[in-house]
Amino acid sequence: MQHNVLDARISPYGSLDVLSRLEVGKLLSASQGNLYPLFRSCSLAVLNYGDYLDDGRELLERYKTFDIRVIQEERGIKLDLRNAPASVFVDGQMIRGINEHLFSVLRDVVYTDDAINNNPRFDLNTSDGITNAVFHILRNAGIMRPLTNPRMVVCWGGHSIPPDEYDYSKDVGHQLGLRNLDICTGCGPGAMKGPMKGAAIGHAKQRIKGQYLGISEPGIIASESPNPIVNDLVIMPDIEKRLEAFVRTGHAIVVFPGGVGTAEEILYILGILMDPENSRIPFPLIFTGPASAAGYFEMIDQFITDTLGLVARQFYRVVIDDAETVGRLVQEGVEEVRLFRKKTDDAYYFNWQLKIHSLFQQPFIPTHESMRSLDLHKGNAPHLLAAHLRRAFSGIVAGNVKESGILAIEEKGLFELHGDVSVLKPLDTLLTAFVEQQRMKLPTATTYTPCYKLLSQENTQNS
Amino acid sequence: MQHNVLDARISPYGSLDVLSRLEVGKLLSASQGNLYPLFRSCSLAVLNYGDYLDDGRELLERYKTFDIRVIQEERGIKLDLRNAPASVFVDGQMIRGINEHLFSVLRDVVYTDDAINNNPRFDLNTSDGITNAVFHILRNAGIMRPLTNPRMVVCWGGHSIPPDEYDYSKDVGHQLGLRNLDICTGCGPGAMKGPMKGAAIGHAKQRIKGQYLGISEPGIIASESPNPIVNDLVIMPDIEKRLEAFVRTGHAIVVFPGGVGTAEEILYILGILMDPENSRIPFPLIFTGPASAAGYFEMIDQFITDTLGLVARQFYRVVIDDAETVGRLVQEGVEEVRLFRKKTDDAYYFNWQLKIHSLFQQPFIPTHESMRSLDLHKGNAPHLLAAHLRRAFSGIVAGNVKESGILAIEEKGLFELHGDVSVLKPLDTLLTAFVEQQRMKLPTATTYTPCYKLLSQENTQNS
Amino acid sequence: MQHNVLDARISPYGSLDVLSRLEVGKLLSASQGNLYPLFRSCSLAVLNYGDYLDDGRELLERYKTFDIRVIQEERGIKLDLRNAPASVFVDGQMIRGINEHLFSVLRDVVYTDDAINNNPRFDLNTSDGITNAVFHILRNAGIMRPLTNPRMVVCWGGHSIPPDEYDYSKDVGHQLGLRNLDICTGCGPGAMKGPMKGAAIGHAKQRIKGQYLGISEPGIIASESPNPIVNDLVIMPDIEKRLEAFVRTGHAIVVFPGGVGTAEEILYILGILMDPENSRIPFPLIFTGPASAAGYFEMIDQFITDTLGLVARQFYRVVIDDAETVGRLVQEGVEEVRLFRKKTDDAYYFNWQLKIHSLFQQPFIPTHESMRSLDLHKGNAPHLLAAHLRRAFSGIVAGNVKESGILAIEEKGLFELHGDVSVLKPLDTLLTAFVEQQRMKLPTATTYTPCYKLLSQENTQNS
Amino acid sequence: MQHNVLDARISPYGSLDVLSRLEVGKLLSASQGNLYPLFRSCSLAVLNYGDYLDDGRELLERYKTFDIRVIQEERGIKLDLRNAPASVFVDGQMIRGINEHLFSVLRDVVYTDDAINNNPRFDLNTSDGITNAVFHILRNAGIMRPLTNPRMVVCWGGHSIPPDEYDYSKDVGHQLGLRNLDICTGCGPGAMKGPMKGAAIGHAKQRIKGQYLGISEPGIIASESPNPIVNDLVIMPDIEKRLEAFVRTGHAIVVFPGGVGTAEEILYILGILMDPENSRIPFPLIFTGPASAAGYFEMIDQFITDTLGLVARQFYRVVIDDAETVGRLVQEGVEEVRLFRKKTDDAYYFNWQLKIHSLFQQPFIPTHESMRSLDLHKGNAPHLLAAHLRRAFSGIVAGNVKESGILAIEEKGLFELHGDVSVLKPLDTLLTAFVEQQRMKLPTATTYTPCYKLLSQENTQNS
Question: I need a surface site. Which of A29, A447, C388, D186 has the fewest CB within 10 A?
């Protein structure tokens, strides 16, 4: 199969306007040196919109000759593209949304490298330092709206879902949009695109200019290319900062059916909300899907209560096949959030008060060793067990779709997970079901080969 | 079946701001006297969005207790609604788009009555007088964009179409939106809604605030309630002024498959473009549909060439199942229009140069007599024959779905149409096909009963 | 003395955008036929800004070869100027404010002629008809701000005043501007320019985009050319409609020292406020000037109480040399106006409730006969006596500075005014003082020659 | 004399919106610790607008009880003021321009301390590091307009000037404003206020929202309180960075008559323009004043040619009593600047290419020792001699009006300046003339006591 390509030179629209010479220099050098592979692969992912691939390697393989350079011209910088996917051009003009995304990638890749990673003022070994870094990356991206009331709803769910789940996610988005709520997702297809499309129509009916925020990270962007509806795109440096960005900018979270990635996200938010330090902070969390997804959420609910205990149920609500109720519940929840922030003199645009344990913040690099040493025992406090489970899912996602993970598995065999049988059994049940329901990979792959094995122990650790 | 209703009091958003006492008085009186039934029925149609009915009588029947009053409050007027359909409210708040539509109805009903009909300065017996009236109604509605380049694409087609035709109309809208083109339709469901939805997504990707113009008229609005995406709504006083509004504000026309109403529109535009006085005026006209609609357009094409001659073909292009090509052709055509207007110093916002024959302008009231006296003979110049055929279709639409027409048929029997067999035969073929393809009414009706009979003559008139 | 002239072709900025062919035709014909002299002389007055002349004839004489034509070009109309005063160009470009004024003149001259004078829908023989005409001219000029709170302060006073009075008028304008109040004047030099300049600085300090409304009329514009700060200019068709425009759009009035024209304005507003039908309508009216003007206002106050009675004093306040107090009093008064309008559900943008007697509305053409027949007797109700006195002053202004008046005097001798000695004596005193203080004409004229004589009767009419 | 004071709590308008917790903490701490005296004194200077004092100590003395605190309230920070000068309040509300200035002071004081001074990423020992710091302070203040063409004109001149010079500076500002040019000054009274007022009127006539940029520094702000017309205020950390900010943001410089401070500025810009490395960079520089100032500029011109050589004349033009010509020359010069920047792909908003020698960049602290060691010899290259002379003037300004300088003189006697007689003689002549013309201090001081003595040497250094 042949993939059409085009050359183009594009200018930014109003971003990257006032730059110092030093900054221009750093941008220019994104085209060369050690930042280049990252910049190139993220750019390519943005340009590949509409042709989602589960495997980032395939994308890079497909457009081997693709090249992108930052150049300086009169009154600012431009991007020079060679052999770029032709599908993002309309009659030779790049779609403006894609253009903006490319400059967002450039901005975030350079800013993170220069102003965060190589800046002694950010101590990424401390929780506060990481949170501060997340805040500065988001602010530099200009995505916070200081003057508006809370209205950002994070939508999570699978990128590879059946049509009825996709349509339902549009319905929910429509109901949220009709209620003047904005949408934030991980910005790929499926449950990440549906709510935005629905909300766009809802906003049009309400005559609102909505915000469609996409939060990605280099490891996932290739398989979750941002839809051009996304009108604020930010590339966080890693999974953990991406997750923190979701929960600190969102005023509510809606979870649609998904796969392992979605399970990871559910564990992440539950682990935070179950942290005793967050007990008084309101945070609306709703699991929802069409009638056909009722079984899915029963299974999820079962897994949560089996592992984290019945108490976990107080932190979420399950709504089946009722988009309007989801809309209403979210709106009510967001209003509670507003009142709480107002009462506690906290910002509306960033959830400073939420305590995020360092187990959720420190980047987890899934290796055979780090996977093996996860502490999947009931003796842990539920919010810490959630943290370990989150890492387990993260590792499985890597083993499934990320280049490094796939290579590691190819080389050293399956990941091993250790823990109580009362944790691993539910986990096994869940993962098996994901496989059966084809929620582990995009349906293009014929059969799923697991990348892990579970090794349970009867004796739990002492607590 | 029960229909939920609500009471509400709503304010206009920025419209109807600076009014004289006299004007306020006229608005207040729209709630009483002879304007009230018109105002009430159009308002009800706007409020019934989402629950399309082919028969306006059914709507009025359903909401018998609905009442709407104009009231004067501090700093302006408001609308007081009783027993209004509940579906246009979100958590008790009326959707803003619907709110705007209600005030558009009020504005146009009162303006047309006061400033056009009862104004000696508009001579509605002359062609220029009618065109001037059309212009003033449109300007009073604030729908013209003097500072932008031509970009308005009129989309015509059926309100009751199969899913694949609907999806295709969205695809075309998406391609138009990606090319920064706006959409104008008759504002009901089906092919009138699809292009707007598609364009809305295309505009979002291009970061454009699009214009979605709906042009309706009192006789049709009940069965073609404006979608709230419509962000400019105007109610023209009758069919002919609505059609004139389409062709004078549009810079191109795209026709999707439809029924008799669509045939009426096709005859209307062809009759104008074939007028020798318009020979040098560029006007892109494209017939398009998905693969399944190929037969439909062959049939239309056959009917056109049979009745108006092969020469008619030079005025339109048929594109099957290729939304992107439609987008490209429209864009090229609109650019030609722009250059022509520029060269001839004509406005971009109103096609003053187009000659519209009075047969197309004078309101046609379908009665047994007026139908019988239509001149369906080949001896007519093609553009005049088109005018008579347009009227024939208009009468059939009335006999099918309009209260007055249905009553007339019930009382006096079928409409009779007289003409050459070389005209009536193709007409019969077309109408029969419409019936077979269920394009005559919404599919809810079980079988279609024709409202006409064709009486052909072998001898044509002398030319 | 030579006057530099230039040719130029100018486009409108966003005004006159969406025009019908008929309207374009009417604009084009403003360059010819009976509207042309009016259009040309008003345009010339606008272009002569900065070089104020008391005598309109001198202006026409000076720029004999000046010509202005409306032409139609691609996408709209333009103005073609020949031999226009060079001083309104900066490096060959016309000052944008002047450009706007020229198109305002065109707009109002054509609109008044077409939509008011030649429109059977406006009955200018009735009080309501005149008020409606005033409203429509103002609305067509786009000068009303429906969404803002009341903030328009009308400033009256002489165009030919000493420097300390001018500086004081700037101080007052500054204090008004600091209080977010806008300024409306007759738009010439002196007390009509000072408050705008002061307010512009005050608005800049408060970061406000102020409205500087100039209301002129063809007979006065030559000697009161609009300052380019005026960002809303409207040309009313005659003196009376201009005065009505002042009092219906203004929320307060400040009067600075002036001459006969100012006296006319004082009588106008007092006659309205003293009308028993207006007794409950709040309307702040303040007479103010620097310390040197204390005597002037004592004289005015004396004249008012002598002719209209002590009761008149309750309708105005005199503030000497205290700009800040003027600012505070006006702001308080405007707030009272706001509350009153709110309570009575009246518009903020137009004072509909104010009753204006037809003696103030019907155009007064000063001739020997009309002047002679003025009814200057104490037997009249005070507000009617004020109306007659207003007309007397109006006639004297005409005899002093207007072409028609000057010619009449040259031909038939002085105007004669008849009335009670108790009215004419104060009038004589006041006029004599004006002469002595050189408030009758611009100081360029060497000596003032009266244009009237007063003929008093001992016997007053029965009351 | 008593000074009225008020308490108030004020909110920022749109600035300081999205802050991290750390940043909020830093702002809060501006109210305490070592930043407080600086923050308080600059704030007081802003609040003392309109009552200019030459001596900062007097201001602090006058408002001993003044206090200002940063507090955190719902949704952001506020300023809490105690015993603040009452003159910046209008009916109890602080003038919005002053409000903005206070938050600008807070912003710059904290940013400079935190992000510049205590940031290892800025090496203030290098020329590039200083320039980068200047850029970042200006960008953080949001004063650069990346999308507009060059239009910023820096106006320098005395804060204490006679009325005719003040009026002339307004005329020049008016001519600049009419040409769509913006104004940047040091933001005090006199020649720093006149051009802004004039430009504000010019901009109003041209319907332009102008930029009025004030650049101050802590040592001078007390005697040069920003006029509230200033709509962009930035407080640079020291004299040298303030001067660099002027020449890097300005696209042209106009110098009005002034005193020693103005002489310092003239030497600064001449020293830069005469630097051989800048030889090809266009930079319009105009000295101008009313007819009465002709002698002043002859004196300046004489001093420049005597010390820097005749060659210096090619870098400036002297225009006497012709504001329009100044306007035209500036506009032409700015157009040249635009073409040059365009050709060299340099930013319009910051003059990166200008080489500024470190003698002009390194802060000069005038002490007896540093003054004595200035190298005022002809043997220096002219641009370096200019640098030393600039420092000499800077020291004299300090000795005249700055607290530290006055105390040093009181303690240790007069500053001594050493150099060639061919340099010191012209210097003596100039300074003596300044004294005679009362250009050394505000006229309130009765007589001027010099703070320096000149010690010339016959032998010049070898070159």
Answer: A447
